User: Fold these one by one.
Assistant:
Number 1:
Amino acid sequence: MDVMPLLLLVAGSAAVAAAGRRVPVPPPLLLVAAGLAVSYVPGVPDYTLDPHIVLPLLLPPLLHTAATDSSYLGLRAQIRPVALLSVGYVLFATFVVGCAAYLIVPGLPLTAALVLGAVVAPPDAVAATAVARRVGLPSRITTILQGESLVNDATAITAFRVALAAAVGEGATWAGGIAEFLIAAVGGVGVGLVLMVPLHWLRTHLKEALLQNTLSLLIPFVAYAVAEQVHASGVLAVVVVALYLGHRAWEVDFATRLQEDAVWKMVAFVLESAVFALIGLQLPVVLDGLGEYEGADAAWYAVAVFVVVAVARFVWVYPATFLPRLSAHVRAREGDLSWRGPFVIGWAGMRGVVSLAIAFSIPLTVHGGEPFPERNLILFLTFTTVIGTLVVQGVTLPPLIRLLKFPAHDVQAETLAEANAQAQASRAAEQRLDELLADERNALPAPLADRLRTVLERRRNAVWERLGQANPVTGETVDDTYRRLSREMISAEREVFVRLRDGRYIDDEMLRTLLRRLDLEEAAAYREAA
């Protein structure tokens, strides 16, 4: 097996993503553009998306990291809009896009058109999360978009399987399709509910952070594989388990949390970068198979399908948002709602690699050995829809949000809430310390007991100090000054340790021990001031 193409993909996409952090263009769009440009460079190998790799190997970890970063309580509070988008909208888009494609493309069978509709129906979890993080959407809108993108793949994959069964001649009925969807959904949630408690128990009872994080990396693949093995939704199983683990992450050892956070950030960065680069790299593969549809006809079909996809989302979002508000109970619970939030949700329906992976899983032939009707055209229309939504909607979404002038985050109020929470926690910690020191078994020398109280007091005051003014001389906040002075002190210690090692007063093993101690001190100083 030649690993060089894989290494080039990972290294190249990571380099482009790193460069994207320094320019105003969102990294996902830069990666797609880079993939498109590189795809025709002589000597670049063909990167054909294999659904047997993307769906079971790339999708679970991406869903896992997105779900653990989400809020279970926030999703529960927004369950109605999330359900309407992740289930209702996907089925609506499948039908509308399928019917439109059937009318637009001469000779395209309705069953094959519905396959296309199911393929392009789900907005992508990676794209939605990446853009939401970048543009700083209000928390409610971000929660709805994240919740939708976590669940809608399960709906789309089930709809695709039903439409595909009809297209290849296996026979499919509405009743059978609804039954398959319910089995997949209920089964996926059920598998997640069964797995989440024992997996969490195992995490909390492993004694080493290294073992706990190894388990953490395996969990999304285990949940997905078990669910798919029983013909349930692997997507929903991964999401359920990840939401539970994220909600109870506080029960895990602190060393595990710190290491796990770093590990998953690295995994998400590498996979997201590679996924968006892969989208652009599909251009030669898609165009090579287009055949008779090359030219103006193919371009017209692509534009028409993209417009239908974009308009259909608005057609669903506004009624789904405002019709439930005819109920006085809904109005009282959700308060006033302007047109701006639904508009952003409607425009934020970027498609991604899941749509392409599903499209590439369309078989070459139907029953009887005949070629699958217009398979290459479906691949092309899927590709152009993904690129169109990422480029058009992805580029225009940040300025659109600025134009709509959503209320900015109230930093003062958030800091005040944090300070109040820290004050309550500090009082509880101080009370617990007094109880422990009253026991003669916990006797400490006075300087060490005072040090515990000093650290606690510093942590309590740090948040309140953030409410103060910046230093009038340097312009630094109290946090910045504290962090800078702490790092200068630690840097001086580090230089002495290295000098002692170079003079052979201490060996390298002792140097590593001392440097690790300083690293932990520096991390603690940074977190206290952060």
Number 2:
Amino acid sequence: MTDGADAVEHLLELFGLLAGDAGSERLAAVLPAARAAGLPDDELDRIARATGWALRIRRTLTAHRRREAELEALFDTANDLAGARDPDAVLRSIVRRARLLLGADTAYLSMNDAGERGTYMRVTDGSVSALFQQVRLGMGEGLGGLVAQTAQPYVTADYFADDRFDHTGPIDAAVRDEGLVAILGVPLKLDRRVIGVLYAANRSPRRFPPDEVALLSSLADHAAIALDTANLLEGTRAAGEVIRAHNEALRRAEEAHDRLTDLVLRGADVPEVAAAVAEVLGGGLAVHDSDGAELARIGTAPAPAPRAAVHASRAGGRAVPREGAWVCAVLAGRELLGSLTLTDRPDLGDADRRLFERAGVVTALLLLLRRTVAEAENKVRGELINDLLTSAELDPVALRARARRIGVELAAPHVVLVADGPRDRLLPAAAHHASGCRGLAGAHGEHVVLVLPGTDPACSARDAARVLGKAVGAPVTVGSGGPAGGPGQVAAAHAEAVRCVRALLRLDRRGTGGTLADLGFVGVLLGDRADVAGYVRSTLGPLLDYDASRGTELVRTVTAYFACGANLSRAKDELHVHVNTVVQRLDRVGSLLGEDWQSPERVLEVQLALKLMKVLG
């Protein structure tokens, strides 16, 4: 067997291991085996690169599975809470799922004791210390006491080194006995009242990012409503007719909640959930995002998001009435994700109001899932852009296949845009713009890059500068290159776009979009595919056409005029005409090229065009 055949066998082994879901250790063992087999260096290099790609694929698959497991656990939590009746069962479910979702060493929940102005440990999961399981916190003491007092989430990567909290001997002793270091605590709230604190903690330093804070806060809000429902049911069992009416309201709310949860689990979009809420509550419903853009509307007239009412609902944590309608802020913790506006139900009772608020929680879950999916897709699109720009050796067929899986057809002509602006706001705005155009967007180097279908780079650049500038609320400068006829041409178009955007910035044309061709002679100098004839035509075209149609000598007159240092007397001698003839011809030139044709910048362009025309013959 030849060396090439041996290399193929090792590559096939890599594919087989990937198909068999082998671990990273087995994938990494292929290269040493090939080296032991005595393969030449060039074949070993190919196998090494293939092994690197295989390991990268394995990491990506592992990350996706982990995220799927988190989402599945979140859905299981929603189902558990929806069906729970026993308050203790609700609390155990909350703590167990919190630990699972965040991958924490331990999770626990304390409940407020209003009579004693403190909070006590109610449920733990993963705890090994009896002292910790029995600890009590006064209001404002420790991290949990501060959360219970302020109704705000708090997080610390190193509890004992954090001086924001009131450290007391009993609390610190309990935390030390449990071995905890990093702690995140979020409040469980009903109306404006904090009823407890939900925690996730690690026994080693760990930073809980904002997404994990929002996720735990969302779970706490969801759980507080379910816990409130369970407590209400438990407290009204002896109330005769009242309990029957209340049970009916709860049954209806549970059915609606299960229906909404089922819609989310089945992958329904915002309009489907909005239609279900409108049907259950018997009114019209409008859903807006956090910026006030309409996401869905069922049975009601178009109207802007009621910002004042949304802020009131967000502050109070409850639905609020507004001019015959009801408004509920859609929250994940304290983060505003959007709002619901219910019309045609001015007499909304307590049960339906609570159901409306539950719809807000379900909508928050749906919007969080949509954002997670969008972030994952944007990451894939950004990775594809980086491969297009930096990995010239990648197979174009494979690149087109990857793009096709996310709805982008790279075989069609594309323009490449490079945008400069506030990076933190520009990247998500560019991703949204590219998604609407069925293109790609991602960060590359110091700029944001967009690859959009089209054949007009100048128009695409101007549109992008306008749309992105409006989205980020600041000037966005866009340089364009292309069009690229396939994956192999994207890098060259990107280099052209980079030169263009840098020239726009240096020429103080911030907030505009264009191509090198729009920059006149600067574009000719910077371009690696300079259209010299096109530049001459764009600069002197009116004079050339006038001379051709009337047999005049305007181009010759301008050439002589500049050659004589803009001296009329010397120019008339050079042309062998009267000075008045020179003046008349120059007036005609001004009418054709514009009155500013003798300004310093225009003079430079015209003289350069005349020189280039002479070179072109």
Number 3:
Amino acid sequence: MPPPVDNASRGPPPTWQHGGVTSATHSSLFPQVPESADAVLDGLDPEQREVATALHGPVCVLAGAGTGKTRAITHRIAYGVRAGILQPSSVLAVTFTNRAAGEMRGRLRQLGAGGVQARTFHSAALRQLQYFWPKAVGGELPRLVERKVQLVAEAGARCRLRLDRGELRDVTSEIEWAKVTQTVPADYPAAVAKSLRDAPRDPAEISQIYGTYEELKRDRGMIDFEDVLLLTVGVLQDRHDIAEQIRAQYQHFVVDEYQDVSPLQQRLLELWLGDRDNLCVVGDASQTIYSFTGATPDHLLNFRTRHPHATVVKLVRDYRSTPQVVHLANGLLAQARGRAAEHRLELVSQREPGPEPLYTEYGDEPAEAEGVARRIRDLIASGVSAGEIAVLYRINAQSEIYEQALADAGVPYQLRGAERFFERPEVREAGVALRGAARAGGNDSLLDDAVDLPSQVRAVLGTKGWTDAPPAGSGAVRDRWESLAALVRLAEDFARAKAKATLSDLVAELDERAAAQHAPTVEGVTLASLHAAKGLEWDAVFLVGLTEGMMPITYAKTDEQVEEERRLLYVGVTRARAHLALSWSLSRSPGGRPSRRPSRFLNGLRPGSAAVGARSAPAASAGGVERGAARRRTRRGPVLCRVCGKTLTEAGEMKLMRCEDCPSDMDEGLYERLRDWRAGQASLLGQPPYCVFTDKTLMAIAEAVPSSGGELAVISGVGARKLDRFGADVLAICAGQEVGGSEDGPS
């Protein structure tokens, strides 16, 4: 084995001294593989270099948001491999999501260390369990439960306990928590009481359902994902020969997001390690936001107690966010309490100054959503890519009103958590087509007029539905086009990075990316919960719905639960590179009582508010606070169902002005005439149909059949601008008159 490269005498590389540190998280899609081990270290700052060259013994990296932790640990692994100190097959890097593991594999491949295993805890354990099960137990490994919720529902029915959809999801989460904290069914009630956990049902009932769920699995010869970890731990504890075989395979371990490990995952890690200490952990206690799944920062905070001789490196240089965003993030944590807060990292921005965070108060939720949509449209007009903008909220149920507002504004969006890119049918079909064209080479007439790689890809994908211009409207057709367009953009980037690349080279690149789940970007504003946004970043972030009861969430009762909510908001703030907007609304629906208050976490941070411990002062319009004016509304007071009279609260119901369950008296013929007219208008404007009116708005019009501008104006989704532009046509259609515009343009 070649001797370790001595870097102690080299000092920081010239590239770093002259401000050439590569962005912590922004990098080229197709960087050149470093020529040598020393070249792997180029561009790292001094602390990142310390991480990269600390290859022996326990290492603890305390890394703040945006400080390049993934960069530091991937360069550490790559440097060790390229210097001959680490054998690729002897390294196991583990993290918590397939996306993060895929990103790590992609970065290692780009650094010339492609043979390293980078997996989630579950993936690594499952591979080991599948391999050793015949030897340890005999026979084939039981099959995995595909849909845990269905089995939990059946267990509930057997216990004669009825669970609605929300309770079913919550009870399933409770069972998962119990298993990762190694709590058996009989001990669940006591464990809940001890942890001050807020159970969704009577703990005794959940214990009963949990026990029945386990019986059903055993009877059917099935295991779930938590069993994968439990069984792997059991095999390694009972079979020392198997444990030694795994330890002989893996000599070095790296654990990302170490603040999120559960007791069960920590036990598995200890069994993998044995009595060795070649372990590098990376984490930030201030980003612990998954305690409801059993995660705890204690293992990170106690690392130096368990390993007194550990090398500890703190990364605080923030390359992601502007000083303004970092200042707000630091201020948010400065008010935190508890053990994690005692170990918080004070970030130092390395970027040029940017705009101040924008705080906006709205009258109601629809006004907030419309205000956010307008700002996003303005950002896009100013040159910010839609794919570099995100709207983040506390719970998924908040997304609908923002989907509607963005659709009304003609802004494309995508919901975070959708199907994996490389598993989409159109992407699979495109891969087959590209592979066939690459195999045919010059014999494929489809490529006769294609002069370079991007034009070859466009020609092939043109047979699968890709066009130069996106299709009108939203839905499946638009989603398919966006997927194919992402592949076209990837081919263009690939050709720029590798001038002599062929179609076969691109197919190989796609295969490697599919294996690593390293997906290209799909254009569109991201809508995501704060939890789903962890590990991601955007140029512009809108944090919405920041009111008491939502942030912190109502069921956050204990001090620790409230502090986790603060950390969740901190994660949201630190997703922003430059533009950050925080907003809240005083009531849920138009005309509602303005009884809501801004989140306590903003006290002392938003201009005009009192610091923690002082009485809150009303927010002033000066000092950078902008009050978002609600749009002019003819309607006042709560929105009532026009069928049963019930107060409406859901955005979709408010759009229709009736409960979803109430009978519809929609004029189907009128609805179809409105759709035909809308299609003509959209074609003339060169915009998707939903930019004229959404389907829900057309349904509401066809149900109300307005006869005047005032009656049309009160329908949600119309608004003053659309009333001025389209009102005359819509009223004429409602009156049974023929109008131009379907084919020949507006009248």
Number 4:
Amino acid sequence: MTDHPFYDMHRHGFVRVATSTPKVRTADVAYNRDGIIAEARRAHEAGVDLLVYPELCLSSYAIDDLHLQQAMIEAVEDAIGAIVEASRGLSPVLLIGAALADRGRLYNCGLAIADGKLLGVVPKSYLPNYREFYEKRWFVSGIGLTGRMIRVGAEDVPFGTDLVFASNRQRDFRFFIEICEDFWAPTPPSSLGALAGATILCNLSASNIVIGKADDRHLLCSSQSARTASAYVYSAGGHGESTTDLAWDGQGVIYELGGLLAQSKRFSLEPELCIADIDCARIANDRLRLPTYADAARAVGNPEQAFRTIGFDHQPASGDIGLQRPMRRYPFVPDRADKLDADCYEAFNIQVDGLMRRVESAKAKSLIIGVSGGLDSTHALIVMAKTCDRLGMPRSAIRGYTMPGFGTSEGTRTNAWKLMKALGITADEIDIRPTATTMLKDIGHPYGRGEPVYDVTFENVQAGLRTDYLFRLAGQQSGFVVGTGDLSELALGWCTYGVGDHMSHYAVNAGVPKTLMQYLIRWTAETQVDAETRDVLLAILNTEISPELVPAGENGEIQSTEDKVGPYALNDFFLHHVMRFGQKPSKVAFLAWHAWHDAARGEWPAGLPDEARTAYDLPTIAHWLEAFCQRFFAFAQYKRSAIPNGPKVSSGGALSPRGDWRAPSDASAEVWLAELRRALP
């Protein structure tokens, strides 16, 4: 079934890119030519679309005055012709480094070659001439070279720093070339290249290695890809370069929107391909959301009007060739094991700081919360406790209420009481069942006549009563109600509108998705509390997620939220890719399938228990994605349009109508549902 077009990554906007560290021998052009061709063929077998070699890889970089020898110049030009011919029928576009002479000047160049054709030549702009570098002794800067042609062999090809290369097959596959020192400059040429429309910025580099320089390269690649909303591909010279005075590590790195996708093994003695699949469609979509990107282009004269676009045909691999990039199953959850404590601390303190400011502004004497023994109220209560600690308020100022209803289990009620006791807050209980029964009877609901009818009205009467009590208690206690509902529930509309869990005085969890909440509670249990509180928190984590508004069945089975709306792991995955990047549903399904279909593949967040490491097949993903689209686009917005204040926590976004997400309350979901149905097997 994986021969269906759905499984072809190219259809979803991905481009397979690699850096290459080929076999190199100092000043041996024929040897280097053969090494370049060998790596091109190996990249073809790996389904690579764009292959970036090091700077001056045809001659090797560190040959000093040999660059100016006529025999060397002619040998390089002859070798280019052989590489162009060898590229016929190969999938990758090859970016090779070579010195080319033109009109009495020698240029350090990057050459783009695709399927038997030399597409164009880009000269290096910034020539280092300090410390160990003497490039101005041999080469001329390409600064200001635009609109030119250069003769290579018997052919004139585009030449200049104003070239963007664009695939004729893939809409967003557009790349720009710069060379080594160019990206160390205060104004890298690739900044203009990105503003001219290139989604992939490529750096052919020699760059000798000294202590700490590898970290500097990472910093520059990350920052340039983030600043220009692009991918950055960097390939440095390696073993085989002259070690007369310098050493070389062959570092290759690939970044996308500031994040590392892949890096090579440094100091390798063997040729190496560092491969990653770049999401060019995501880059293009992200730029649509960044007015600063368009403003920056306008500020420098709209370079897309001055740059030349060089179209090319290539031979991309087809079918299911996999997906080679890190895939985060939990995109909202911290994934840096070495900085886990710092990330969790930051997430908590965003909420704590927001709540502190609101307490100070309202001059509240108490904080009111309904405590169910579930995840949301548990997390909110932890945030409230930390808020009181930082403000110097006694935790007794927090007034927590359990409010058992018709579906409340003894387990969650017990956990709620244990938690309130462990955190040292003021605890009380209000049984809402008598009042709920009266209300159901007053409105003529069948349950008021003793009939076991457990419909939405039955549930909402309980949810509404709980919130009503909390608001009245807040008035009585000179305090305000802290909301417990989370980002995942807002995405799905899984809350009772108005006088229900939809409403509060401050929605402290509004920016926290369920998967992040679970992770933060687990982190708190393991690192922040005593053994007694830890046991309570872990018990809450291991409880089925349920609103507990319907009595348990005859077999003791309780109402399950995830049976109704789908696994939160999938829903949060869908939410991230739809809300943050505007990905179309079929692509979200493609990403979800690669992330979730095999539990044994890929990385899991640090500390996630083995029992949580599950897998979902494509039919399951498609079923819940369709349900998500229906709820997110066509149902839930009217609830989101009227939510209380609450802090944004994740760069993945929030759903406040005053912030990240603005949408009509009465939209149709048909565009998204139709796209999903058309594209899936």
